[in-house]
Structure prediction request, 159 residues.
Amino acid sequence: MLFLFFEAGKLKRLPRTGWLLKGIPNLESIADHSFRVSLITMFLADELKAKGLEIDVERALKIALLHDLAEARLTDIPPTAQYYIDKSKAEKKAAMEMLLSTPRPREYEEGLSLEGRLVKFADKLEMLIQAYEYEKTGFKDLNEFWKVIEKLKESEFYE
Prediction:
């Protein structure tokens, strides 16, 4: 486990590539992003559970905490590079090697569970919050990030 913890520590030093390519200095790390995704997941899962939806909050949190772990090996692959490689396949392979065997990467990537779909929603929501924060500090030309709103509106969690 200690080796995994050291490897996960790389996420604190790896920047979110989409923001880096936009020229944003002092940008968030992958670990920063994952923390807020987990926080959003926790609050949304609790709210959904309070409304009577059968959701396993602990499972959702585990998926949220692990959803970007493979990026410790692959880094944050930007959409421009994803055109040339199968990011999902690469992340699944890296995650499986790092975690030995767990269904969580598939639950997130393929939306196989309610909890996995919730984390995917939280992941997109976190990115929008970050885009808003960067725009408030004066950064422009972030329109490509706002396109994800349409995907959020299609989600079962959008209200």
